[in-house]
Each structure stands twice: as C-alpha cells, then as structure tokens.
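Why do we bother with a discrete structure alphabet at all? Because it lets us treat a fold like text: something you can write down, compare, and reason about line by line. To make this less abstract, here is a complete entry for N-acetylglucosaminylphosphatidylinositol deacetylase. Read it the way you would read a sentence in a foreign language you are learning: slowly, and without expecting to understand everything at once.
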Amino acid sequence: MAWLVVSVSLIVIWLASFCKIFFRATSISGAAILDDGKTPQKKNVLFVIAHPDDESMFFSPTINYLASNACNLHMLCLSTGNADGMGSIRNNELHRACAVLKVPLQQLKILNHPNLQDGFGQLWSHDLLTEIIEEEVTKHDIHTIITFDNYGVSGHCNHRDVHRGVLKFLQTNSGRNVKAWELVSLNIFRKYCGPVDIWLSILSAKIHPSKVIIINEQPWKSFKAMAQHLSQWVWFRKLFVSFSSYTYANTLSRINP
C-alpha cells in the first residue's frame, strides 16, 4: 500500500509540474536578464558553450525565453566536439539545432582551433579564450553573456575552462558595460528530478532573490533541438533530456568578477 501511495504522489507531482509549464502558471524572474535599459529587440546576447549539443542539453530554457522576447541571439561554440572524430558531423548538427531554437545561423560561430579541442584531457588556455570572447563581444556589440558556472553542470574540464575564460574577460574588460550570467550547477537529486525541479527552483529564487529562474514553456522544442544531434542521440541521452531538470528550467546567477 505504501508503494502505491508513493507512486500516485509522484505521478500527481509530475502532472502538476507539467500543468505549471503548459498553462503558464509560472513565476519567472527571467526579466532581470533584460532589465538593463535596452529594449529586447536591441539586446545582443552571446551564449558561450564548449561543444555542439551543450545548447540543447543545458541552455534551451534560457534560449527559448530570450528568443520569445525577441532578443538578438548569438552563439559561440568553442569546439566542434571532435573527441570521437565526428567534428564535421557535429558541426552540421549544431546548425540544425540552432534553426529549431531560433538562433540565427549567421550568428552562430563554431571554432576548430588546434588548442581548443574536445576532450577530458584537453586543457584550454584562459588567455586564448579571453581573446576570442573579447573579439566576439566587440564585433557584435554584445550586452549580455550566458555561459557555464565554475563546475560546468557535469564537471567537464572544457565547460569549466569556458567559465574561467568568460570570468577573465570580465576581469580584464571591467570598463565595458557587459553583464554575464552563469548556469547554476545543481546537485544530483535536483539534476534528475525533471519538471519537478521547477518548484524547487521557484523556492530557491525566493530564498536567493539574486538568482534568475527561467521556466521552459516549450520543452518539446528542447527535445526537437537535441534530436538534431543524431550522432549523440543515443538512449542514455534521451533519458537525460527526459529526466534532466535543465530541460524544464534554468537557474542563472550573475557573474561578479
């Protein structure tokens, strides 16, 4: 009997979570990202990621939110994800995913720098990353950067180096009016509790009002975007996208250099 009560309770919580998503009964504090005196149409936002599929697996709630608010989205992917020799394939997959997520393809830049190669044993120069980020910010008049935090969601060294590159850019360009936000890495329970995490995210925002919570009102678009990465769309990643809280909500924190 106890297991039945637990099962029913979990089903009710999941259904309530989906209702909160689909019927827009959401408490979103995402407007803080837009609150810098500029209209959304004139706001240039740069996502800085490490590999093709990072945008779909981790950042899609934020991308969907900003795209729906008519922000001008740019994406800088610092490698082709060539760890398994499929860099050219993954390059094309990222183009298709960005088309789904409404990131203009002419505003997508994918690097294949010899010193920025995908891999757990590959350490990326923070000075090189700073130089590349500064070039993109200047070229496109970027107002806001969104990237990984110091842990990088999964602890991947490339994700963590991207964060440090952005941090160093902010430290060496303190005179620029550029804001940066990091995607908060969640503990293992929250990471895999799916849409239920939206309740925990809203509670966290009340406790820590400086954090920004963005709830994904189009999670099906996140699935469709990730499905464009056919080379990566294996069974365990399908499970990840289904049960990962990053499909349903993003918690962002301001990077203060």
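What the structure line is telling us, in plain words: The chain has eleven helices and seven strands. Residues 2-22 form the longest helix (21 residues).
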